[in-house]
Design brief:
Keywords: Membrane, Transmembrane, Transmembrane helix. The chain is mainly α. It has nine helices and no strands. The longest helix is centred in the middle third of the chain and has 41 residues. It is globular. 18% of the residues are buried.
Length: 180
């Protein structure tokens, strides 16, 4: 095949950007719901604070100020986590493409719901979603297993540097075999 015909097969930059955005939303769907609820909490909190007529030192004011702050902070963390899950998606998609379904590829990513969703989206793109779902089911994971396993086993892990680095500061991964 000549170079001109190969160049004709490449999708436009807009098509690539749209498909990447769609995959990002699918991969981080649970996190996007959290972002939406947090933004709603922020808006309600700001509205309550603006309508507040009492003293600035009472419990009602502090409650809404705290909830407003939470509603502002959670979307930041959720989007950073979503970026990390998207990097997991891209890496596993490349590996599944090269080697096919292998439980050893999926096992490191099955311990949190967000990572399982990311892996399922990658597996769906490559036609091996049923194998991955079956593997997760065999490992005992169901739809209601939402929180990461480490939170359940060691709740204080939230206060470790390694946890935050792994969740929020996932390294960028460049796809090798796909545009999106």
């Amino acid at each position: 095949m000549s170079k001109t015909k190969i160049a004709e097969l490449k999708p436009s930059k807009l098509t690539i950007a749209i498909n990447r955005f769609i995959r990002f939303v699918f991969v981080s769907s649970a996190l996007q719901i959290i972002v939406g609820l947090s933004v709603w909490l922020f808006v309600v909190g700001v509205r309550e604070l603006l309508q507040y007529q009492g003293l600035a030192w009472d419990l009602y004011f502090y409650k809404w100020a705290f909830l407003t702050w939470i509603g502002m902070a959670i979307p930041l963390f959720a989007e950073m986590d979503a970026f990390g899950r998207y990097q997991n998606y891209k890496m596993v998609k490349d590996k599944l493409h090269l080697m096919g379904f292998d439980p050893r590829l999926v096992r490191p990513f099955m311990y949190s719901n967000c990572q399982r969703i990311a892996i399922l989206v990658a597996a769906n793109d490559l036609g091996c979603e049923d194998d991955v779902k079956k593997y997760f089911y065999q490992q005992g994971y169901r739809w209601y297993h939402i929180f990461p396993d480490t939170w359940i086993k060691k709740p204080l892990i939230l206060f470790t540097k390694l946890f935050w680095e792994k969740i929020l500061f996932t390294k960028y991964y460049q796809l090798k075999y796909f545009y999106w």
